Amino acid sequence: MATFLYRLGRFSFRRRHFVALIWVALLTLAGVGAASAPTPGSTSFSIPGTEAQKAFDLLEERFPGMSADGATARVVFKAPDGEKMTDAENKATVQKTVRELADGSEVASAVDPYQAKSVSQDGRIAYAQISYKVSGMELEDASKDALEDAAEDARGAGLTVEVGGDALQAVPHTGSSEIIGIAVAAVVLVITFGSLLAAGLPLLTAIIGVGIGVATISALASPLDLGSTTSTLATMIGLAVGIDYALFIVSRYRAELAEGRDREEAAGRAAGTAGSAVVFAGLTVVIALVGLSVVNIPMLTKMGVAAAGTVVIAVLIALTMIPALLGYAGRKVRPAGEKSKLLGGGRAAKNPDRPNMGTRWASFVVRRPVAVLLLGVVGLGAAAVPASSLELGLPDDGSQPTSTTQRRAYDLLSEGFGPGFNGPLMVVVDGKGAEDPQALFGDVADEVKGLDNVVTVTPPAPNKAGDTATITVIPDAKPSSATTEDLVHAIRDTGADVTAGTDGQVLVTGATAMNIDVSEKLNDALLPYLALVVGLAFLLLIVVFRSILVPLKAALGFLLSVLAALGAVVAVFQWGWLSGLMGVEETGPVMSMMPIFMVGVVFGLAMDYEVFLVTRMREAYVHGEKPSQAVVTGFRHGARVVTAAAVIMMAVFAGFIGSSESMVKMIGFGLAIAVFFDAFVVRMAIVPAVLALLGGKAWWLPKWLDRALPNVDVEGEGLRTGSDGRKDPDEDRELVRA
Prior knowledge:
The protein is of the alpha+beta class. It is 62% helix and 7% strand. The chain is built from 24 helices and eleven strands. Strands 6, 7, 8, 9 and 10 form a five-stranded antiparallel sheet that branches. Strands 2-3-1-4 form a four-stranded antiparallel sheet, with helices on both faces.
């Protein structure tokens, strides 16, 4: 592989115009496709195999005009102090508002609160339920404007009016902090390379790669049913890995220049050595992202595959466009140890033989491996403690900022009707095979009324055929509580008992039940997913490092870092520590897909640092250095670059903490803190400590396995000897000069 990438690097350097033209053409093509693509419609959210999804499908079949997946809006009214919603003037205002909303072309129904008896017992709060024929993402702006205008008119009459539900959902924005993350990355690159031009190359190629990836996603959004979160994730991952992969190539290029190589040869060798590490690091990220498909949640699968595609683009750009741009830059990109005229007058660094910080740190770890290992493991263990209190759920309007009308409507409904009113459960009774469907409907309703934690059970509402009915159940606890989850399971158990011996069935659905089913599905998939991803990556790393213990150590270190990161997420988003600093206005359960998502993404990124850092150590070891000295050599060449890469990745991920979407905010924080733990505690401390303790045993591989494994030559050994076994001419020239 190293030889192939070496030739690719030299080709890209020589044929820079051709390579640059190809990438510009791809960017233009993707941009034109995105610009001409139709506006994407709604993003379907189906969870195959769950009871809630089966109930939705049954409703679509038996209640064809019901629009079970259509948008809903709850217009909540509150009377001024000293008044009630039943007062004549307030009642007239509400009824006028409902009539205006009912005239909308996309409105399926608008229920008068006085007919539906949806007025609180104290008479101060009432709500009107508005159902639409299309989903919230498909809802036209005119319908949303009509909803907001009607609410504003009612406010003008003196009422407090807020709108809940998904009818007013907006595309999340990430805020200015994303730009700050890129700016931090630029500063780190300038400090690392000591050159504005060298620092600009990784940023430029990363932006081009993300541009191609996101534009392609936008172009395919409508036919492939891709949501807005898909492009957000692709941007987040693509920027991080794009900058990092280009950083490693440029850094190795400068190191090759410092050894006296000419520029074309240096570009080829950088692509052959650091490029090999980039390929395998990228493969681990792709495996982790594509592996999300085993969860069998279409939305998550699409997010993972789209992000994986962006990673592939980042790898290809790093291997081809970076050498091409280095060819354009010429002498403006200086050898390692030299700074540009702007930043240092083009002079070589002072005291070039003085050990750098990476060398000094590695030497310390090699001398004190047990102490460093214990300190790192105990520290991560302490950070992981909150993860034992992990509670999972999916965000609802109660997790929205208090500045939003959805959150204020949520709070008003809780105040007037109880917290469970924000999470009604829909019980679907299928009596098609029952002898007396009407009796079955009544029996189910009566049994559900007798359950604990139930506030209200509506009478069964059958369809025209009379073979299926819906029953609405209002819990007494908020939607994301464990009490409501227990109630859902109790209703399902009761329904199974009632329909025993008949051909009928009872299903529970609705947003709350769907969230519960998703959480359980994700929990059930976590261990199989972990086994698949870690297993495949473990095999890949055995091929890369030709060792059993090094990949095993890498996997165990990853588990430590991801548990510590989950602990930090629990502390901030569930317990409320530093919540004000992070902009978390409402604490609650951690997003149910967070653990499996962090396992996938963080594992891929963690292996990046493992590959980049440890391949340098193995390169030194196979070239004759002692195991402990190889650790120090690996840090001398790689610590600064890995540190810069980690800081850049943290900055990019942290930029998404400013998002208005709680899911994106949590993902940004979780990934940023996970990179910190993995890069600076696991890879920079625990890894060298373990390798120092293992010594030469770290690189042990059974002979039979050594013969069976393909030789991918990540260290670039093939670049030192030709295919006929002769030494590289560059090395002969070095010997002559010596």
